[in-house]
Every structure is written in C-alpha cells, then in structure tokens.
Amino acid sequence: MSEQLKQHRDQIDAIDEQVLKLVNERAKLARAIGSLKDDGVIYRPEREAQVLRRLQANNQGPLANEAVSNIFRAVMSNCRALEKELSIAFLGPLGTYSEEAALKQFGLGRSAIVCGSIDEVFRTVEAGQADYGVVPVENSTEGAVGLTLDLLLSSPLKICGEITLPIHHCLLSKQTDIANISHVFSHTQSLAQCHEWLNRIMPKVTREAVTSNARAAQMIHDLVSTDGTFAAAIASKRAAELFDLNILAENIEDDAKNTTRFLVLGSHEVAPSGQDRTSLVMTSKNIPGAMVQLLEPLSRHGVSMTKFESRPSKQGLWDYVFFVDIEGHQHDAKVKAALAECLERASFLKVLGSYPVAVI
C-alpha cells in the first residue's frame, strides 16, 4: 500500500469515527424530543421535509442531492425508531414498487404490513393495525389510479405525505433466453407502460394482468412448465432478488422518465412545511357555469391548481366528483380564504389533506 493511499484511508477512518459520534448525539436529541411530545405523533413529515430541503440547499457536493436525501432519510428513520418502530401498510407481496416507496419514505426503521389490495391498505390503517399506509395515486404515463381516488372519497384517513418514485421495469424469468418466453405477467399499468417495448421485442407473447408486479414475479418463481414454454414477469430488480429470477432485460419502460406518485395515509393532519400541497375532492351545484364559479376563488386569491381529475361519484348516473390539488397548505392565509369561498359554492367539499411536496 502506498503511503498516500494509507493517509487517505486513515483520514476516512477518523471521519467515520466523528460521523458515528455525531449520529449518536443526534439520536439522543431525537429521543429527548420524543419524550417531550404530548400528542403521541412520532412521524412529522413537515419537519423531515424541512431538514432535507435545508441539507440539499447547503450541499456543496460531490454527493448529489438525492444521495444526501437517502443518507439522511436513513438517519432520521433509525432515530425515529428509538421512539417507536412505525408499522407501514402497502400493497404486496414484497418486491412491489409500493414497498420501494415505503422504504424510500420510512427506511428500514419500520415494520412492514403486506396487504393483498389497495382496499386492504386503507382498512388496515383505518382499523389502527398500521400507523401509516402507502398507496399509488398516479403515474406519469398512465394517469390516475382510480381505486385510490375512490377510496379517498369515503375514507376518514388524511393524506400525510407524498412520494415520487422513478419506475424502471425489468423482464424477469427462470429462463435466460427471451426467445423461450410465451407469456408475460404483470400489473395492468406496468403492461401498459411497457406496451411499445413488448410490441417491438416480443410481439407474439400473451400478456396477462395480475394484482401486482411482485405477485407476477412470485408466480414465475412458483410456476412449473409442463409443455416446454415459459413465462416472464415485468417487475423490479428487487423482485428479481427476492424471487431468485434472471433479469432478461432492464429499463423496458417506454418512457425513461416514468414516475409513480404515492400517498402516505394516516389519521392525523400535518403542519405547514413551507412548501406544501393540498388535495381536495368536491362537487359543483347543478347550474350553468357552476364549475367556473366553484374554481374562481382559487384564481382570485392567487392559489395555483396543479391537478384536476374527474371521477364517477357512484351516487347517480353521469354524476361526477372532482379531485383537485392546489399549491400551499390549508392553513395558509390565501388558501384558507379561497377554500372558505369554495365551500360556500360547492354542493360537497372535502379536504383530503395538506402535506409537504415530495423531496427528491
């Protein structure tokens, strides 16, 4: 070993000792803060978002902001676990993108509650069997997840946070040759997100939808071929590791910027973080120009609307509800004033939650 290399490694060892000491000091302070809380709420997404934004603003590299966020999310997750190990419900089995989103937001300092459906995630959190739930709400390619929106309409749960997750699909199989594949299994949205790639590379395979990507990988792991044909799954790299499958192709999504947005569901409201989003659902009165009148207060008070999605209300034929995202927190003065006027003009309005905008 050269003397220069040894010097660098000695310096790294010394820095590691300092980091270890400082992280433990931080953990002691976090535990002390936990003992002072009188509402029993351990997870403070607004505070965590403020910490990550401040660190990214002060980051001078060479680590990228995303790497800095990953490191400090792990630190905060393990410090939080000293107060309580949070239980997080998500759509299973293990290896789904929902699990990846839960890991990104809550880290390893949590216990996983694997659910068989999005409905079950809602029910599990509503029943108090999980502290929080993570559910997909929209994809940049395929749009909204209708079931999640429908359940938000009737659920007492609040949106406590959001997670954006880049989605990179892989083709997984026990086989090592794509030419041997006759069937491809995956979630409906994943099949759609890889539609053009499948048309180009595997035009003759049969595509079959299942409840989740990880469920598809699990099926391929358990499947025994009796006629010499073989199947594959579209899922994540993590699913390949969990179910011991070969990766036949990576990044097969049609859009390289393919991203899914997830919501964190809980039973409590979240305080302002300084960069927030508010989600609501409402219906307009059945009079000409009602929708324009309903949204007019947002424009007049300078509140930006970032999403407008209609869904059947299931209360009557051709009756719709409107899901709206706006910038700002419901307790911000201009948002509060605008929502008060919208409430007067709407036949129904429900605030689903105010929460920090996702930090990359």
Concise account of the structure shown:
One of its GO terms (cellular component) is cytoplasm. The protein has 360 residues and is an alpha/beta fold.
Write the topology of this structure.
Layout: H1 3-36, H2 45-58, H3 65-83, E1 86-91, H4 97-106, E2 110-115, H5 118-126, E3 132-139, E4 143-144, H6 146-154, E5 158-166, E6 170-173, E7 181-187, H7 188-193, H8 195-201, E8 206-210, H9 213-222, E9 230-235, H10 237-242, E10 246-250, E11 259-266, E12 276-284, H11 290-300, E13 305-312, E14 320-327, H12 333-345, E15 346-356
Parallel strand pairs: 1-2, 1-3, 7-8, 7-9
Antiparallel strand pairs: 3-4, 3-11, 5-11, 6-9, 6-10, 12-14, 12-15, 13-14
Helix pairs in contact: 1-3, 2-3, 11-12
InterPro entries: ACT-like_dom_sf, ACT_dom, Chor_mutase/pphenate_deHydtase, Chorismate_II_sf, CM_dom_sf, CM_II_prokaryot, G/b/e-P-prot_chorismate_mutase, Preph_deHydtase
Keywords: Amino-acid biosynthesis, Aromatic amino acid biosynthesis, Cytoplasm, Isomerase, Lyase, Multifunctional enzyme, Phenylalanine biosynthesis
Domain ACT: 279-356
